[in-house]
Amino acid sequence: MRPATRCAATLSLLGAALVAGPAAAQSTVTVARQIDTDRYDPHISTARGTAEIMFMVGDTLVTLDYDMKTIRPGLAESWTVSDDGLTYTFKLKQGVKFCSGKAFTANDVKASIDRWLAHPKGVTKTRAGPVDALTVIDDHTLEYKLKQPYSELLFQMTQHNHTVLNIDQVNALGDDYGVKPFDGTGPYCMESWEPRNEVVMRKHVGYDWGPPFYEHKEAQVDKVVWKVVPEEGTRVASLKTGQIDVTQYVPYWAMAELEAMPNMSVSQAEAYFWTQYVGMKITRDGVSDEVVRKAINLAIDQKALAESVYFGLAEPAYAYISPKVLDYDAGMDLGHFGYDPDKARKMLDDAGWKPGSDGVRAKDGKRLSFRTYGFAGTLNRDMLEAMQGDLRKIGVEMNIEIHDATVIWGLLAKQDFDMYAMSYPYVSAGDALNLYFPSKNMPTPNRMNWENKQTDEWLSQANAALTDADRAALLGKVQRQVHDAAVWVPIVHEPLFLVSSAKLQPIRAHGIYGCGLYKGLGLAMK
After folding, report:
1. Per residue in 218-265, pLDDT tens?
2. Residues 411-444 pLDDT 10s
3. Which candidate among 20, 88, 252, 285 keeps its CA 20 to 30 Å from the CA of 98?
4. Which residues are CB-neighbours of 338 under 8 A, at least 6 positions away?
5. Which pLDDT band, with edges at 50, 70 and 90, does 408 fall under?
6. Does residue 2 surpass a pLDDT of 70?
7. CA–CA gap between residue 201 and residue 10 (Å, rounded)
8. Is 108 helix (H, G, I), strand (E, B) or coil?
9. Where in the chain is the domain with CATH 3.10.105.10?
């Protein structure tokens, strides 16, 4: 990471002309966040910290409505899809400009996708689909041709990885791209970044091409400051005292108090898909046994976890994805998910896993004792410790190792674990399944080492489906298959709350990628 003094450059260095009124007339909103990210480059970062800034300082061709199922215009005002599903033709909005003043054209979209696909560190490139060719028809028409149909392309295009870049800035900054302020077409302009401290953005004067589901198409405040506030108690106190105006990072233990305060406004995202689970590396001793994995699932009391650790605000999860998400298969047999410790003990007894003198079961010299990685944080620790107690009751030992986020990703990459705790965002069943279960994604993010040719084939066919019904049917097969194998323990489907002070008008929370403010066009002073 470069020194903060180098990162805190302003857009004026990039030739931007930010027009603002007198200082006394300016409105400023301070947003609290829990952690920062390492780089503001949508092509090499999957972090929520990157996404929540990208959505506000940049734009995508299409956007996602509050229901998380309806595609709306973004930088594209309209689009058509060929009958064979291979060619998307986007008509782009005119009059759009980057914060630097550069006019937005179809060349910027093509250059952004080309850069992403060619980048040696580019992540989640599958969100771009199997691109064959991008053709600029004219300044405001782009032809996006695929090698084979990709039925979820428009949904994936709503994600922050599809943010359109100013390729001139990319080329000018070189290695500094992503650590200097981002030049985007979004409703706000990124003015400065002090790593692990704050991001400052100002209103993009002239911006009026926001998504149609917002009341306002332009920013209603002059300045937004994103402050990193790691401590839960400090975030709560800062809200109460007015030092912070809005945040989605409110600890569950504080929600009831804040909701009861007349000077606070609380909004819950109506559709939000972020699931907490514990995965099992099925190539390791013990958890390689499907009976053991099913017994572990039956031993965990999700309802009690939701009530105690999440203060009753999360929904107990008995499937890997939310039943509300696009293409969820409601016909799955989820009989081995849900709390039934007696059944779990009987299954292990029948399979020959017998308790030892210390109460831990063993078979053929192998003990059911598992190394489990978790992320640092009170919530994660409390969840794993509750699971540890549940598993002890059926003769399974969970050894917990908690690591900071700066360390755990490297440890996970080494694959020296049996189980791991993780949470993840998704926009559809296909989004979730295509991330975690293809063989090609081993060893990460397919940390379970799930390798199945049928899974790969069904996913490929689902991606290439020409109808919604065909896609849903194929994804349903994958869901039934991986749930039957019990490779995860689903814990809870998390909620998203936005809490704001009396200084602001009530804000409707969005659920995209865990970014409650999305474009930030709901921020307005009272």
Report:
1. 999 999 999 999 999 999 999 999 999 999 999 999 999 999 999 999
2. 888 899 999 999 999 999 999 999 999 999 999 8
3. 88
4. 298, 302, 318
5. confident
6. no
7. 10
8. helix
9. 274-493
Sequence-ordered list of residues with C-beta below 8 angstroms from that of 332, at least 6 positions apart, any chain: 319, 476, 479, 480, 483
Is the distance from CB of 402 to CB of 379 less than 8 angstroms? no
pLDDT digits (tens, 9 = 90+) for 301-338: 999 999 999 999 999 999 999 999 999 999 999 999 99
Query: In the predicted model, what is the mean pLDDT of the chain?
Result: 93
Neighbours of 105 (CB within 10 A): 18
Helical residues (DSSP H) of 369-486, grouped into ranges: 378-392, 405-414, 429-436, 453-463, 468-484
Classify burial at 477, counting beta carbons within 10 Å of its beta carbon; exposed 0-12, middle 13-18, buried 19 or more: middle
3-state secondary structure (DSSP) of residue 111: helix
Whether 514 and 425 have beta carbons less than 8 Å apart is answered as yes
Per-residue pLDDT tens for 126-156?
A: 899 999 999 999 999 999 999 999 999 999 9
- How long a stretch of residues is the chain? 526
Beta pairing class for 419-425 and 274-280: antiparallel
CATH 3.40.190.10 in the chain is located at 4-252+497-514
Contact 158, 73 (CB under 8 A): no
Q: What letter represents residue 414's amino acid?
A: K
Measured over the CA atoms of residue 125, residue 128, residue 129 and residue 135, the dihedral's sign is negative
Q: Tell me the fold of 274-493.
A: Dipeptide-binding Protein; domain 3 (3.10.105)
* Answer CATH for 4-252+497-514 from 3.40.640.10, 3.90.550.10, 3.40.50.150, 3.40.190.10: 3.40.190.10
**What token pair was written down for 305?**
């976890």
Other beta carbons less than 10 A from residue 13's beta carbon: 9
Residue 4 has pLDDT above 50, yes or no: no
Cβ proximity of 152 and 431 under 8 Å: yes
At 377, list the tokens: 């944080």
| Bridge partner list, 370 | 398
Cα angle for residues 486, 488, 490 (degrees, 5° grid): 110
Are 46 and 441 contacting, i.e. CB atoms less than 8 angstroms apart? no
Q: Which of 487, 440, 395 is nearest to 124 (CA)?
A: 440
Residue 39 identity? R
> Is the pLDDT confidence value at 59 over 60?
yes
Question: What is the identity of the amino acid at 321?
Answer: I
